[in-house]
Amino acid sequence: MRIAVIPGDGIGGEVVPAVLPALELLGEHFGLDLSYRIFDWGAERWLAERVGLPPDALDLLASDYPTILLGALGDPRIPDMAHGRDILLGLRRGLDLYVNHRPFTPRGSDRAIALFRENTQGLYAGVGGTVSHGRHPAVAIDECVYTRETVEKFLRYCLRTLSESGRERVTLVHKSNAVPHTGRLWQEVFRAELARFPKLVGNEEYVDSFCYHLVRDPSPYDGVVASNLFGDIISDIGAALMGGLGLAASASVCPETGCALFEPVHGSAPDIAGRGIANPYAAATAVALMLDHLGHLPAAASLRRALAAAARTDSATPDLGGHGTTGTFMAEVMTRLEKNLADARPEPH
Ligand code: NAD
Ligand code: IPM
Ligand code: MN
Predict the structure, then answer these.
(1) CATH architecture label of 104-246
(2) Which keywords annotate this record (predicted)?
């Protein structure tokens, strides 16, 4: 399996190189035949050459590197993130990665809430513009666009995945009282698709009230499905419930082609970039999601066990209350991973 690695900007360039040795070790141990190629797409290239996602990138990835690991994009020198939109939203839309799975396990719980975010349309459809009076925009429009085809294939995939993985409840998060056109389309399709999965109990909540209840008590929630912007916001709340953005990861998938992009939920964190203290847990969890996707469940489970154990030591990064660095934390993870893998080896006779 050939993997495209895009470290990106800021702490993306710190956490991604830090987690690659774990991927290599797991690849060797489980005989996974993994190889990767690093792509330098990001702010430096944009500032030097005005190139975000190079013109041949989508074809190259789709044919040769259908599995992508991305760090983060974002640079204070590019305040509107034009390069990040070009690269990140370009990959999500260009490869039709319409399912964004962002699981999060609230502290004190042993079960992840399975959040699914639609990843290509809605307020991210790129439809809109400004009308200027003089040099300043007087009117600004960003349209929320949803096609029935995308809502249907997204919800059907999510409900099937939830049902097959033994989930019992699914919540549709919407805002049909204030944003009625797309809201009602989502509700209509949700109800119709739910009828195909008799084991799933569905309910519908307004996004504002959902966020209120989620923060107060996440325990009733199981599967959650949301449109693009709502899912973006809920995933940062989910990260906070886990214990920080340094922990949460995401998988963006096109179920039809198998193309998939794995990344932390967090951004380039300019406030801590260059200090060596970024938490690589989320990037390593993105690797675990990638191993799950490729069908290497034991490799993913070993990595998750090592991460959870290392996070409880003083080598953890400051966001987790430790005194470690990106490097010392991953060294702790590697030690535990090596031990787990050696213990799991059959005894020689
Ligand atoms: P951010 O997620 O980068 O940071 C938010 C806060 O969380 C910061 O205080 C940061 O220090 C902390 N944090 C994030 N990741 C951490 C980690 N691994 N370890 C420890 N602390 C961590 O959000 P922001 O500051 O709003 O955005 C910075 C830039 O990143 C912006 O340009 C934004 O557009 C971009 N961004 C990119 C992505 C992406 O590439 N997927 C996601 C979110 C934001
Ligand atoms: C994320 C980010 C992106 C998004 C930004 C950087 C465009 O916040 O991956 O969560 O809104 O999807
Ligand atoms: Mn986000």
Answers:
(1) 3-Layer(aba) Sandwich (3.40)
(2) Manganese, Metal-binding, NAD, Oxidoreductase
CATH fold of 1-102+248-349 reads: Isopropylmalate Dehydrogenase (3.40.718)
Strand order in the sheet with 2-8: 35-38, 2-8, 67-72, 260-264, 249-253, 99-101, 114-118, 223-226, 169-174, 201-206
Rounded alpha-carbon distances, angstroms, from residue 306 to 303, 313, 331, 337, 340:
5, 11, 11, 5, 8
pLDDT band at 1; cut points 50, 70, 90? confident
Domain boundaries, the chain: 1-102+248-349, 104-246
Q: Mean pLDDT, the chain, as a whole number?
A: 97
Answer whether 16 contacts ligand 1 (Cβ < 6 A): no
Check if 232 has its Cβ closer than 6 Å to any atom of ligand 2: yes
Q: Is 279 in the pocket of ligand 1 (CB under 6 A)?
A: yes
**Nearest CA residue ID for atom 30, ligand 1:** 267
Tens-digit pLDDT profile for residues 273-321: 999 999 999 999 999 999 999 999 999 999 999 999 999 999 999 999 9
Residue matched to tokens 């490097």: 327
306 CA → ligand 3 middle, Å = 26
